[in-house]
Structures are given as structure tokens and as C-alpha cells.
What does this fold into?
Amino acid sequence: MNSILIPVMALAISMVVIPVMLRVAPALGLVDRPSARKVHSVPMARVGGWGIVLGAVVPVMVGLSLEDPVVQTYLWGVLVLHAFGTWDDSREVGHYWKFLGQFIAVLPAVTYGGLVVEELPFMELGSLPQEVAVPFTALAMVGVINAINHSDGLDGLAGGEALLTLLAMVLLAVVAGGNRTVVIGLAAIGSTLGFLRYNTHPARLFMGDSGSQFLGFTVAFLAILLTQKANPAIAPASVALILGLPVVDIVTVLAQRIHGGMNWFKATKNHIHHRLLDFGLSHYEAVVIIYSVQALYVLTGVVLRYADDALILAVYMAYNVALFAVLLGLKKRGWQVRADEPTPLGQALAIARTNQWCRRLPLYVLAVALPVFVMGQGLVVSVVPRDFGVMGAVLLVVLATELVLRRSVNSITVRGTVYATLTFLVYLSVHYSPDPFGHWSPPEVAFFVLVALAVALTVRCSRQDTFRTTPMDYLMVFVLLVLGVLPHDLFGEGAATEIVMKGIILLYASELFLHEVSRRWNPVSLGTLVALGVMAYRGLAG
It folds into this structure.
């Protein structure tokens, strides 16, 4: 299977499964009730994990050999954790049952799958003996599972943190040619993105233990697979930075509980996100701050992946000390967020929103730019592989049927088809466009800068609330900016980063345009129909 189809398939499955599970959640008892240690005030369905897990598992089963012990033990671990997680989501079983499920999930990967940590920092002269390496690996994986599980305290928090880590692992695996890591990572990224559209604040549902334990297991599994098998040259210490804030947070919380003589496993409100909320920050602001800190850890881990272990651990400890020094210093001073007068920039933006040209001109730009891209790339690319032709034909029938039979331009089918088409065309434009059309030629750079500016202006000037910025949007913008400033040769030829950057800009542009227009037959939907027809014809005829 082509790699670009993996996250698209995962995202589509996730976004189809989640609405179905939302309807049946009360009947299954999969509802999270408010309590003193939780930040939500109304019951919330805990079914997001079903979309995440199913969305990730299907592409893995299609894209990798099921005879591979590594793949077998990954699927086994996912199945076990999903079962135990769903049980906990419906009955809230004790921590010991959860630990049992976690060990049942990870032990086959360590023993049968051969996923063992043999190299630790400062071990240049030898490897861990098996009698030490096997239990250490199992304990480490369980620790990471619980770190992600306990970071799931705010809308979009655990999913966003895990997403940053998974993205880094996939990019590093692409360089090393680690196909299993790439497929598993891309599938998890796609299914998590599908979930986050329902979970960013204000969330419509939670992922529950079935989702958070899956993400923790996947992150731990891929960290070992990447560093011990796909690319052993990566410094072992860099894993601490790539895993980032969830591990730092859980270790600190455990240390506080031990120091205070509390039950190690009793949930408390002393995680980093609780501290930020105590300062008076909003839910939205706390998540954005944590995303930013996690991104700093992860990006540093990627940049220092081949550095000396001593340097990496020194940077890691410096980050940790700085983080908690700031938190403790603000707490001692009694610092609280205060509502200030609007800034000059805020006043200018408020005035701009009343100007009709500020609202209309960016939409006119998108109305021209998006159809030009989808139709132009369908004709310009030198080759359309047959599997893309088949997908183009299927999506053409789906989109045409939806536009004829439905009235809403904002239906999930229309938007999903447009997103998939843009993703396919971005991939084709990077890999099959003849020069000078691809690979960041000056006209192409100008085009994407123009589209990005149009998106930013439309969001700021729009009077509608249908397209509100969320922490996930800031997360995607941050990823875009980071990829733009990284050295071009950091990830080989740069094809993966180019696809991600172009895809983020175009997907946000299309989503915004479809939210702002009210007509089914608009430039984007018509341009997508034409592009799908061209892609289907060229792929099937060739």
C-alpha cells in the first residue's frame, strides 16, 4: 500500500467510527461522570478510543505482513489494551487490573517479538544481559503507557502530545527505511487526527483508557522499534526528549505522592495541566502551552538524535529544571492571569472584522487558488499510479452522489472527500511533478504563502463561529513552522516534510472555505469533481 493512503484510511475510519460510538455510548455505560478531580462538568462519552484503535489497526493489517512477529505482537498488545481499557471505561476497575492488562499486552512483544532495549545511555562497551533487558523493557513500556494515560486530563492534551512524538518517530524512521515504524506510526497519526477533531476544546467526547493506553503502548513500542531495530545509530538518550513531557510529568507526580506519603496510584490534581489551570489560565491556553513545551522537547530530541548521550541528558535535565522552576516560582508569587484592556493589535483586528473586504477578499483568493491547484495538479503530474486511479474513481462516485442527494456543503462526506483528494494530489505533486512545478520553486512558494495568508485573514475577519481556532490548529501551525525552518537535508530528500507542509496549508484552506460558503456547487466542490475525474481516468487508463 502507498504510504500516503495509510493515514488517510486511518483518519477516515476514525471519523466514521466515532459518531456511531457516540450514539451507543450511554447504552454501553461508556460515559465519564464529573468528579472533584476532573475538569469537565457534564457527562462525556468515553468512546474516542474505539475510533483511534480501529482507525490505526486496519491500515496496519493491510499494509504490513501479518506473519511478522513484531506486527503480531503489536496487534496483540493493542487488542488486549483495548479490551481492558474498554472494561475500565465502563466499570472503572482498579489499578491492579489495569497493570495486569498492560503486562499481558507488552510481554509478548518483548519475548516473542524480540522488542528488547539492549542499549542504554553510556553503554558503548556492551549491551544489557537478557535477564536484565527483558524485565527492564517490559517495565519501561508499562511506564510509558501510564504516562500517556495519566496525561489525558484536558481536551486534546494526550492526543496532541502523542501526535508530536509519533510525527518525530515517523520522520526519523523514513530516513532509516524502517517500514514497520512508518506504517504503524502513520496509522496512529491518522486515527489520532480523526479523533482530535471531536476532542479539541470544547470536546464532544473523551478517548477513555482504551484510547490513552493504545497511544502509550504505540509510542513505547515504536520508540524501541526505532532505536533498537530500525536505526540503532540514534542515541539512546534522545528517546527521553522525544517522549517528552508526559514522562516528566508522571515521574514528578509519583515523586510528590511518595514524598507526601500518599497512595502511589490514587489520582490527584497535581499534574502540570492542573497547575496551569490553578494560575487562572483557560483550558484552551493550558493545552496550547503544554503543546508548545512538548514540541520543544520533541524537536530537540530530533535535532540531537546522533549527539553524545551526556549532552542530550544535560539538555533534558536543563529543560526539566527550567520548567518546574518557572511553575514553582509563579506559585510562590501567587501569580494569576488577569483580564487586561484590549491590546492595539486586538483593537485593530476588531475593526478589521467590520470591513467587508477583509472578509470577502481572502475567500475570493481561496475560491480561485484551491480549484487551480486540484485541477492543475491532476493534469500536470507525469504519472498517476493505478491505486490512485481506483481511489479517484471511488471518491468521484461518492462526492457526486453526495452533492446531488444532500443539501449541506458541510457534510462529513463532502469534506472528507475534498481532504482525501487534496492529500492524494499533494503526494502526486511532490513525487511525480516535472520541474519546475514541484519542489518549492519560487512560483510554488508564492502560491502557498498566498493561500496561508488568505486562511489567516479569513479566520481573523470572519464573523462566523463555525470555524474557531482550537489548540489542534495551533499544533498544526507549529508543525508547519518547524518543518519550514529545519535544514532541508535533515530528513533525506525532504519529500515527507514537503508533503506535510503543503498538506496542512491546503487542508486548512479547504476546511475554512467549505465552512464559509453555503452553496453545494461551489468552486472547491466542482474543482474536486474535475480533479477526481482526471485522476481516475489517468490512473485506470495508464
